[in-house]
TrEMBL record:
Biased composition (Basic and acidic residues): 311-323
Superkingdom, taxonomy of origin: Eukaryota
UniProt-annotated stretches for the region Disordered: 306-337
Annotated protein name in UniProt: C2H2-type domain-containing protein
Length: 337
């Protein structure tokens, strides 16, 4: 099998121009084919881009939205979050009607020039050089899948018989994949799907939605049980924390009252000590005044008494006092007369 190399100059002519999402920041904007940017606007940024009821097709149970009906049908079949949420609602005793959760908008929001920016020829060339095209891995596909439709239909029966004889699960899966590929790629089925897309019913009935929903999902059930235990543990922890907070609040109130009482007692004790200190100071001052020697006593030599001593008054008094204790034989010596 030969492979033809594509020239770098013809990348834009082959893949078309690149598109950039205008709703994202410039440094994180999605750049690629138009279909990639459209799917990004519909699926990736639900809160930042368009509302749920503005999409062409959407599921109100798990807020999934898409552009085509087959994407919505695939979502019901294979999207694990959709099945888990439906099973959880059934376990809680709620009636789940999946038909009422699938909608088609009669006037959807279609991304336009305000949402997507068409890049120029040179910018597209630079982007296509960095982003390689998605190619089918031919070495992983068998010969029957790569054949044309008439030859593939003729070999399909033989492949089914060989798979039933050998009981090979891989061969049977390949036959199922071929059935789906031929049904989707045939011109007759393609026209039917286009006509089916042009219908605008309000509610859509998914294929085998109830059968898939009724199938037991042990992993989901176990996960929900663990989730219920976790929620119960969180509620218990929340109750314990609320009780502890209430106890701390009461203790804080009591501690505040004790601090106020202690502050008042300290203030009262301080006033008592201040009053006692003042009384002691006054008593000490009074005692000092009482023990202070009188200026008329002996040994007091101030200026006033020196003047009187010059007049002879103090000297005469001292002589009179001294003559009282002297013997009789010495009195005549100290007698002033």
């Amino acid at each position: 099998m030969t492979t033809r190399l594509i020239s770098v100059k013809s990348l834009t002519n082959t893949r078309g121009r690149a598109y950039r999402c205008r709703r994202c920041p410039a440094e994180d904007a999605i750049i690629g084919e138009k279909s990639k940017v459209v799917n990004h606007i519909y699926k990736k940024h639900i809160e930042k881009h368009i509302a749920l009821d503005q999409a062409p097709f959407y599921c109100s149970l798990c807020t999934f939205k898409c552009q085509y009906q087959h994407d919505l049908e695939r979502h019901v079949r294979y999207y694990s979050a959709h099945r888990e949420k439906a099973n959880l609602l059934r376990e809680m005793g709620c009636h789940v009607n999946e038909e009422a959760n699938l909608f088609q908008n009669l006037h959807p929001y279609l991304p336009g020039d305000s949402d997507m920016e068409v890049l120029g020829h040179e910018d597209s060339e630079q982007i296509w050089r960095k982003i390689p095209p998605r190619r089918c891995e031919h070495h992983k596909l068998s010969t029957i899948i790569m054949l044309a439709h008439p030859a593939a239909h003729m070999m399909l029966a033989e492949a089914g018989r060989s798979s039933s004889r050998l009981d090979n699960s891989s061969a049977q899966s390949e036959v199922n994949f071929l059935h789906e590929l031929l049904d989707c790629g045939s011109p007759i089925n393609f026209s039917q799907r286009k006509a089916h897309h042009r219908q605008t019913p309000r509610n859509i009935e998914p294929k085998d939605a109830f059968k898939l929903a009724e199938q037991p999902n042990m992993i989901a059930v176990e996960w929900h049980q663990q989730l219920a235990k976790l929620v119960a543990g969180i509620d218990t922890l929340k109750y314990i924390m609320e009780t502890k907070v209430e106890m701390l609040r009461k203790n804080n109130t009591q501690l505040t009252a004790l601090m106020v009482n202690l502050t008042d007692a300290i203030q009262e004790q301080t006033n008592t000590y201040r009053t006692l200190n003042n009384n002691i100071t006054k008593m000490i001052e009074h005692l000092n005044d009482t023990n202070k020697p009188h200026p008329k006593e002996d040994g007091c030599k101030n200026r006033f008494w020196r003047k009187e001593r010059k007049k002879g008054t103090l000297r005469d008094n001292q002589r009179e006092n001294r003559s009282e204790w002297l013997p009789m034989r010495y009195k005549h010596r100290h007698s002033p007369y």
